[in-house]
């Protein structure tokens, strides 16, 4: 039998005695018989395993059987609890009845009485399961389609008699509508074959239906575009916890997420339509709140409608941060543009914001002879991929990656340009070593101010221009000294020095010896 039973008693001997009698029952073969020496240990087991029947001693230290039963019912409202106690504890019977206990056995427990109680419970559990299956099966595809059509009517009329007869038994204790959405499926299916896509979506649908059936959540109906409608018929105070558990287990199973929006509970079938609309409204703010979560109430959501008034200033700062390869500053600017504290709610507002951001960036970059869309290899001036994202955070994350990429490309391009400029300056100076060369002259040749060129040169080479010039001249002098036919004063003139004393002093400062000593050392 697919029934799990848990035995709870603080007395190890009594617990083992009970376990042997349950396991030794030849008429009933349980799927699993677990034991726990305290209510705390039993609750731990229930957190990770479905328990159908509990046999618990009513008098236990620290956490009594009654206290344990209340917490067990919170974890699993469908669990059947049977209390075991002595005659002196029979005063607890009234409280046990209030807890909807399934039975009460007195110590010493008679074998026949125990077996009859277990057989009765197993039959009851099987009956409940068959009833749930029967109710589920009454929701045929035709009935589901009629109910979904009624949900989607903007001004719903009277519920058809046929649908009423199907739904009314399901909601007699209260029900709510929940809409389950498979996140990011439009993006995922692009990388799949048709067969892979059908296999994945079928497995996901089966997982959701199996979870709902196993936990008696209610009926799951397939809707449009990766959506499922759940008619939740479980008690209201347990529904939210189970839906959150569904989200978590789904994520573990598929490494993918679902988002669920829920409506109000009602016992009136005509108000189910309102519950459906509320679930739609809750799911719609996934755009703002994010996915992989349960959204229960959209009524208190107060969106911000205005785009940042200082957009141009923020974009200017963001462009400067891009040029400086300051990724943190880029991210800060994006958060400001998207109003992190109270984000835009309408997709049109978001797209308008993106167009304004990219248009201004493109215009600013054109002033620098750069082309935004060519650098990022966007096929057109509007990045249509943004329309496929399901949340504002998805869009912001995508833009963050692209703007980080843009910053890196601009930075590398700028570095290459600077390196090219340094190479050109070096070649220019090398070709004029026999002349008097100054920073002012070189700066004028390259259309820079002396201060800017000196700063740029120091930043890129980590050496002052004047030191660079001296070093280049001395290398040139050393090469000339290798020719023994040349006089030292002739070499000084060829290196652009008119004063021999200054030439000798500078050579000694750079090389560590006079030109004559240099020739002696190298036997020239």
**Morphology call:** elongated
Helix content: 55-70%
Strand portion: 5-15%
What composes the largest sheet? 5 strands, parallel
What is the end-to-end distance? 104 Å
The stretches of 5 or more residues where confidence is low (pLDDT under 50) are none
From the helix content, strand content and strand pairing, which structural class follows? alpha/beta
Using the CA coordinates, give the radius of gyration: 40 Å
Indicate the mean pLDDT.
82
Number of E strands: 10
Compile the SSE list and pairings:
Layout: E1 4-8, H1 12-23, E2 32-36, H2 39-48, E3 53-57, H3 65-75, E4 80-85, H4 93-98, E5 103-106, H5 111-138, H6 141-151, H7 161-167, E6 176-182, H8 185-188, H9 194-214, E7 218-222, E8 227-232, H10 236-254, E9 258-262, H11 272-284, H12 286-289, E10 294-295, H13 311-323, H14 327-337, H15 347-366, H16 372-375, H17 392-430, H18 439-445, H19 450-461, H20 465-481, H21 488-494, H22 500-511, H23 515-521
Parallel strand pairs: 1-2, 1-3, 3-4, 4-5, 9-10
Antiparallel strand pairs: 6-8, 6-9, 7-8
């Amino acid at each position: 039998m697919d029934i799990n039973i848990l035995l709870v008693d603080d007395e190890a001997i009594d617990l083992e005695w009970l376990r042997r009698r349950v396991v030794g029952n030849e008429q009933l073969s349980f799927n699993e018989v677990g034991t726990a020496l305290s209510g705390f240990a039993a609750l731990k087991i229930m957190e990770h395993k479905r328990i159908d029947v509990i046999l618990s001693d009513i008098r236990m230290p620290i956490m009594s059987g009654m206290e344990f039963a209340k917490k067990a019912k919170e974890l699993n409202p469908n669990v059947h609890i049977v209390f075991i106690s002595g005659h002196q504890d029979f005063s607890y019977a009234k409280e046990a009845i209030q807890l909807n206990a399934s039975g009460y056995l007195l110590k010493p427990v008679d074998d026949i009485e125990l077996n009859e109680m277990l057989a009765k419970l197993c039959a009851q559990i099987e009956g409940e399961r068959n009833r749930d299956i029967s109710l589920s099966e009454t929701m045929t595809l035709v009935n589901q389609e009629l109910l979904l059509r009624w949900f989607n009517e903007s001004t719903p009329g009277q519920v058809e008699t046929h649908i009423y007869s199907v739904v009314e038994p399901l909601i007699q204790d209260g029900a709510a509508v929940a809409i389950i959405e498979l996140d990011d499926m439009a993006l995922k299916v692009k990388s799949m074959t048709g067969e892979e896509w059908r296999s994945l979506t079928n497995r996901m649908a089966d997982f959701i239906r199996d979870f709902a059936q196993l936990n008696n959540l209610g009926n799951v109906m397939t809707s449009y575009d990766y959506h499922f409608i759940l008619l939740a018929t479980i008690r209201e105070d347990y529904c939210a916890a189970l839906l959150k558990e569904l989200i978590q287990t789904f994520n573990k199973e598929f490494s993918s997420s679902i988002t669920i929006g829920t409506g109000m509970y009602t016992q009136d079938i005509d108000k189910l339509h309102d519950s459906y609309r509320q679930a739609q409204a809750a799911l719609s703010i996934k755009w703002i709140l994010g996915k992989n979560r349960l959204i229960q109430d959209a009524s208190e959501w107060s969106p911000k409608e205005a785009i940042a008034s200082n957009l141009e200033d923020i974009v200017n700062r963001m462009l400067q941060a891009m040029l400086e390869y300051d990724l943190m500053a880029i991210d800060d600017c994006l958060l400001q543009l998207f109003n992190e504290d109270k984000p835009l709610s309408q997709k049109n507002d978001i797209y308008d914001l993106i167009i304004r951001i990219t248009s201004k960036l493109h215009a600013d970059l054109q002033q620098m002879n750069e082309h935004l869309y060519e650098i990022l290899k966007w096929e057109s001036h509007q990045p249509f991929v943004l329309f496929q994202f399901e949340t504002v955070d998805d869009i912001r994350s995508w833009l963050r990656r692209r703007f980080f990429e843009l910053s890196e490309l601009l930075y590398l391009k700028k570095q290459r340009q600077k390196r090219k400029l340094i190479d050109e300056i070096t070649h220019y100076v090398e070709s004029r070593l026999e002349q008097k060369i100054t920073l002012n002259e070189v700066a004028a040749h390259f259309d820079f101010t002396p201060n800017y060129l000196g700063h740029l040169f120091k930043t890129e080479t980590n050496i002052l221009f004047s030191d660079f010039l001296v070093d280049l001249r001395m290398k040139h002098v050393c090469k000339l000294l290798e020719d023994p036919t040349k006089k030292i004063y002739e070499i000084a003139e060829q290196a652009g020095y008119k004063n021999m004393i200054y030439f000798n002093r500078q050579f000694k400062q750079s090389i560590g010896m006079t030109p004559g000593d240099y020739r002696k050392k190298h036997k020239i």
